[in-house]
Amino acid sequence: xxxxLILALxxxxxxxxxxQQPGGAPPAVGVVAATRQPVTQSTEYIARIxxxxxxxxxxxxxxxxxxxxxxxxxxxxxxDLLYRLExxxxxxxxxxxxxxxxxxxxQLKNAQAVLERTEALLKTPAGQKAAYDAxxxxxxxxxxxxxxxxxxxxxxxxxxxxxxxxxxxxxxIGRTAVTVGNYVSPSTGTLVSIVxxxxxxxxxxxxxxxxxxxxxRSGGKASALVIRIRLPDGSLYDRTGRLDFVDNxxxxxxxxxxxxxxxxxxxxxAGRALVDGQLVTAxxxxxxxxxxxxxxxxxxxxDQEGDYVFVVGTDNKAEKRRVKLGQSxxxxxxxxxxxxxxxxxxxxxxxxxxxxxxxxxxPAAAPPVQPPAxxxxxxxxx
Length: 382
Hints:
Blueprint: H1 2-20, E1 28-33, E2 35-39, E3 42-51, E4 54-58, E5 63-68, E6 75-76, E7 81-85, H2 88-121, H3 129-162, E8 164-166, E9 171-173, E10 183-184, E11 190-195, E12 200-207, H4 208-218, E13 225-230, E14 241-246, E15 256-263, E16 279-286, E17 290-296, E18 301-303, E19 306-312, E20 318-322, E21 324-328, E22 332-337, E23 344-348, E24 360-363
Parallel strand pairs: 1-24
Antiparallel strand pairs: 1-23, 2-17, 3-12, 3-16, 4-11, 5-7, 5-10, 6-9, 7-8, 9-11, 12-15, 13-14, 13-16, 14-15, 17-22, 18-19, 19-20, 19-23, 21-22
Helix pairs in contact: 2-3
């Protein structure tokens, strides 16, 4: 009984003490005024690097492979000798065709002499028109035979030239599919591939609605947009490119259009940064920044209904304000609707704020710095 009395007395005293405590002070928060500032709009897309030119090397004639004259994985120049096939049979064929041309030319000289004699005899009683006609036909037939023999000689020379396989473009050569001693022919398929190196294409799909927005932003001028690339290691490529192609149709199952840009790819040290088939991130960025109402990205919250911020009103009460976001970066979010310029947006201490609750506003601890125009911030995906 005594224990129960003591417990009741403790609860009574504790409750009285709590009831006598003054109400809690409003939570301190850091605020930043929504201001208009230059924002370089950019959007990111998963992209592939593609060579602007590609050549699959195949044999044009059938012969044994005698020599491989390149180093795999190196860069070659247009006209460099890559393979040499067995040439003996082709040289012999050329010589045989040359002999045929020479034989027909000798016969033509004799036919021309016969024609001249029969033509002279026509002026005398011994001349016969039939003999002249026969000589003329023989001379013309030999001329035709010479043309045919020269065509065969030209084809034989072409076949001989095909035994030396040369690079048709500048670029980086891959692995050879055949080695010395193998028999190759046109049906063998690709012997080796060459891909051009500078410039490179960056190709990426873009939602149709975004293409419309890009056209609006750029005024229909591709030169108003810059392409930058984030490499697979997360670093930004130090060169920029320009959009040079928008596909003429929409991919039905994804509702996207293919865009392409040309990127310089100069040699850097022992190699080049961009590689054919490489998976990268393409950043489409406006050339000039645009004025936009912006707040620190940390001030923007989201729930099932969308994005919102907390604004401090004239009575120092927190107001939950639904907003529509424009271009967002890790530092800033541009606001297209729901917020007015100059309104104080809560940034610090936002986790302690509830809608309608009084707060004690003060300057934010460390407002973020807007990236300068020309940089490539990591934009939110469309």
